[in-house]
Amino acid sequence: MPPAKALRLSVSRAAEKLWGLPVRIQGIHQEIVGQEEFLESLDDSMLLLLTDGPLGAMGAVAMDQQTVAALVEVQTMGKVLRARAAERQPTRTDASVSEPLVNEMLQGLSINLAEDRNGWWADGFRYGDMVEDVRTLGLILTAPEMQVFRMSIDFDSGAKEGELTLALPVREKPEKVERPPTGKPKADFGAEFENVEAELDVVLATLPMTLAQAERLAPGMVLELPPDALSRVRLCTRGTCPRMVGQLGQVNGFRALKLNAGPGLAPAAASKSPGGGAAAGSGAVPALDFDGGGSGDLPQLPPMDSQPDMGDGGGDFGGFDTGMEDLPDLPPLDDLPDLPPMEDLPDLPPLDDLPDFPDLPALNFDDDDPLSKLMGD
């Protein structure tokens, strides 16, 4: 690829990559000139930048006021204004704003010339620093000759037109030249797929409405959501909503989504305490198994038909050894003495001296508490 075409492509691609800015190179002129002749083509109103290269090689980039204004406007306002910029002295802020374009331009030039075995002279250059004036630039540059590219640039379909000059030193080819790779490296598709950016959308609810209602939507309007919207959100990607349902909340101050159901998700199981029961606060009681499988390690009771016969309830306990067979019989009760006669008991004293008790008051069972009156309350 010719160097002029390689530079043309690198400038256009750099502006598009960095800011989405359409740039068209209206004309480009390439020549090799002496350092003095190159410096005479510049003036102090331009933004002058040094470029650092391999083995101490140094080049330069010069931009006029319209080019600098276009770069400042697209980065501060998002577009290039369709008006000619006022003349002013360049600043270090202008240099910082121009640095991304310079680096992308130099890197793109080197890559575009990678297949040209004589394109080594463009390798390894990048942005260096701002230079105050042309005189200072002449004191810094050391190469007697420079390969100069002068470009006329159209920014954003005629919004502004500017000039950019790139000068790289003419130097001898080093003994060992490390060129950028010429072919595309073999892609590791596994690693590539793992690093692909995935955009996920959380859908709170779907609200049916007519086209007329949708046209009347405006900022500040309040839409009524279902009561369970936050606990029944759906996870969607690029218009597709698989069966992924979750609950919207926050963790450590950040919005978070807890997936409750969906493809590839195991159903939630009740957590258990170390003792085997349900953990406190789990909200679930373990089911009881009455079919014999939920009784744990309890032993089985023996069948009742294996127990000994209890007999008919008499003295024979049906084979049980009670230990009471050798007890002696009770003695006969015929020899017990007679009780003394009851005639010798003293008479009770007379009760005539007892005081008379007063009559009890009449009870009125219509009162709420008749016992309290009876007790004297």
Tell me how many strands there are: 10
Which CATH architecture of the domain at 3-169 is right? 3-Layer(aba) Sandwich
Number of helices: 8
Taking the alpha carbons of the first and last residues, their distance comes to 125 Å
Low-confidence stretches: 268-298
Question: What tags apply to this protein structure?
Answer:
alpha+beta; 377 residues; 8 helices; single chain; 4-stranded antiparallel beta sheet
Please give a structural write-up.
- This protein is 21% helix and 19% strand.
- The protein is of the alpha+beta class and 377 residues long.
- The chain has a domain at 3-169: Chemotaxis protein chec, CATH 3.40.1550.
- The strands form two sheets. Strands 1-5-6-3-2-4 form a six-stranded antiparallel beta sheet, sandwiched between helices. Strands 7-8-9-10 form a four-stranded antiparallel beta sheet, with no helix packed on it.
- Helix 1 packs across helix 4.
- The longest helix has 21 residues, at 92-112.
- The N and C termini lie far apart (125 Å).
- Mean pLDDT is 78; it is low at 268-298.
